[in-house]
User: What shape does this take?
Amino acid sequence: VVDETGQFKEDNFNRAMACLQNMGDAAKGDTKGRKGGLRASNSGQSNIFKMVKMIMERNFAPVIIFSFSKKDCEVYAMQMTKLDLNTLAEKKLVDEVFNNAIDVLSDADKQLPQVMNLLPLLRRGIGIHHGGLLPILKETVEILFGEGLIKALFATETFAMGLNMPARTVLFTAPRKFDGKDFRWITSGEYIQMSGRAGRRGLDDKGIVILMIDEQVSPMVGKAIVQGKPDPINSAFHLTYNMVLNLLRVEDINPEYMLERSFFQFQNQAGIPVLYNKVKELCSAYNTVNVDRYDEISSYHDIREQLNRLSAEFQSFLTQPEYLVPFLQPGRLVKV
Assistant: This one.
């Protein structure tokens, strides 16, 4: 639905959504009107397997399959038991790297389920990466993926943060995620961060991004995800008295020099040309304003200013004691 130039093809998107809707209507429920449940789960599992198999058959590996749940990463990886993506030589290398890595663990830690269950997957070229794994296991998976010994990596979005691990293909298992409160569509910034892993510099002419959708998505939502702007980065730097005092206490450091090179100051300096152009536009608009009978309006304004000034002086004159006290005598009526 998005070509190499970044153009969003709404017609293709609508056709894909219509096809998805027709397939969903045909597969929804059974003869008793029941829907969802285990049957829908099995359908989703087979779809993941079919997508990964298609990617391997078309030589689009390596692929990163992003899922927004640790449990889903493991479940989807376990569905790939029928796939064997590594040669015998690659399996020997995986065994060597994995065994050398876990030598630092105690004998009891080596018997942990995640340690014992991970090696069979790695030998077949399938990896798992999420925050629930031991740090040594995550590091091992990253090394194997970087060396090309993992062809399909099931990971959460944390894998896209701070790691330079590109792939040829990126696959999203769902367009929605749970943010701690409710399920929402992924933002364009999240999509850009994860889809940016598709395409290896010097190896691939272009990256491939596949977004699996299991529900009706409007073209507006789809376009906002794949073509939206990334989230802006704004400095939260605020100068405080304690900060200035601490800088003054350090020798050979000029506080002004430090502040001028802060990201906050950089953003403010970058905004100066915009403000300058805006001031020029306002000045140009001011100069083009023509006022009819300008002399009469100016004279009227000066007279009004003079009347206001004289009125204020007159009020102060009336409230002086020498003029006010003679009228303030006992028995005199005063209207307030």
